Amino acid sequence: MRRLLAPLLLGASALAACGPTPIDPARQIGPNPFLPEPHQYLLPPMHVSKALGWKDGAKPTVAAGLQIAPLATGLMNPRSVYVLPDGDVLVAESGGPDEPINRPKQFVMNVLEKKSHTPEDPGQRITLLRDVDGDGKPEVRSVLVDHLNSPFGMAFVDGSLYVADTDAVLRFPFAPGQTRITAPAVKLADLPGGPIDHHWTKSLTASPDGAKLYAGVGSNSNILENGLEAEKNRAAILEIDRTTGASHIYASGLRNPNGLTFEPTTGALWTVVNERDELGPDLVPDYMTSVRPGGFYGWPYSYWGQHVDPRVRPQRPDMVAKAIKPDYGLSSHVAPLGMAFYTGGNLPPAYRGGAFVGEHGSWNRGKFNGYKVVFIPFAGGRPNGMAQDVVTGFIKGGGAQGRPVGLAVDAHGGLLIADDVGGTVWRVTAAH
């Protein structure tokens, strides 16, 4: 394996050296990001962060006026967090299935990405944390439900807990206050899963009236290299009737939508999206956007509106013509996986009404990008200003002490951050 890996890595380095010079990522933040010319690669530039973990009491760095502390440690790959009506916090400890290898890049990444993940197996479960007095020290910690299949999204509506496994939305009878679910799951709806299951995380949220569920389903490829049939009901947000389980595509052309949540003042559905790779260190910008019913957002035929991806065959100018331009660029290869609008009262007033985004970080640039939590101010239900770094310090040298994923706001107004590499849920509050 090492003999095969070495020339592939040398080839990637040589190709990267011939590529464009990376730009300042700040040029791609906002409603009109700078888009350089595409540069195609056999193997893209790669910089995989070795998983370090937090040593000797180390913790992330926060912006002025804030403080951070662990709500829970020793978790098994925590990927998302969800706050129940009674204030209990649910943590999905999860990992995805192995991806089939059908391209040299996938072989390289399967080897290298092992360095970027903790050696422990993921929990494949949901853990409950109960912090009654809001001091950041849970009095109760219990496994709520286990033996799940790569769980990620969660939603509670009318006496039922809904969990988005990688291949189905499950429904459990649940009453707030329970610390263990013993009743068997009922499958509400299928979600696209294996055998490829390239983007395995399935985000989930409920409509404000509770009648519908919305599931984010990522693509099964970068740009259709696994065939069109493998993309059925993928790169899309599915709307699911909570009573019958009937589902249909609500919006499409979203390569990997996550962090689904409704903006509190307008009631519009928003998502963060991981865009395509292998067009250069500064293409294509990941983004956050409101989601129009029936809207098409370009993947795989175009990006950022009508910018055609030259690699896709066959070309579809009819689809390109109707592609919707996203609302707000986050810069390229930051890999946003979590989003939360802030309506709490604990953090300073400047954060009220805006959106926090968890940027997991990616390997598709020679220099790290993402690996932090940012804040985007909103006004009138729309982004209004430059993204601000709020939680940083995840990178140390060439490795990652942690990587932020899902976000939530707890009952006391603290910002919760699932950190999969660090095995921690962090809690950010106002500094005393």
Q: How large, in whole angstroms, is the Cα Rg?
A: 20 Å
β-strand percent reads 35-45%
Strand order, main sheet: write it out: 1-22-19-18-17
Quick one: CATH superfamily?
A: TolB, C-terminal domain
- Class inferred from helices and paired strands: mainly beta
Count of helices?
A: 3
User: Low-confidence stretches at least 5 residues in length (pLDDT < 50)?
Assistant: 1-17
CATH class bucket: Mainly Beta
The name of the CATH architecture is 6 Propeller
Mean pLDDT: 92
The share of residues in helices is: under 10%
What does this protein look like?
The chain is globular and about 55 Å long. The model is unreliable at 1-17 (pLDDT under 50). It is 7% helix and 35% strand. The chain has one domain: TolB, C-terminal domain (Neuraminidase). With 432 residues, the protein is mostly beta strands.
Give the tags.
single chain; 432 residues; mainly beta; Neuraminidase; 5-stranded antiparallel beta sheet; 3 helices; 33 strands; 7% helix; globular; disordered N terminus
Draw up the topology in text.
Layout: H1 2-17, E1 29-30, E2 50-51, E3 61-62, E4 66-72, E5 78-83, E6 89-93, H2 104-112, E7 125-130, E8 140-145, E9 153-157, E10 160-164, E11 168-173, E12 186-190, E13 202-206, E14 212-217, E15 236-241, E16 247-252, E17 257-262, E18 269-273, E19 285-290, E20 302-303, E21 307-308, H3 317-321, E22 328-332, E23 336-341, E24 355-359, E25 372-376, E26 378-379, E27 382-383, E28 388-392, E29 395-396, E30 399-400, E31 404-409, E32 415-419, E33 424-430
Parallel strand pairs: 2-30
Antiparallel strand pairs: 1-22, 3-28, 4-33, 5-6, 6-7, 7-8, 9-10, 10-11, 11-12, 13-14, 14-15, 15-16, 17-18, 18-19, 19-22, 20-21, 23-24, 24-25, 25-28, 26-27, 29-30, 31-32, 32-33
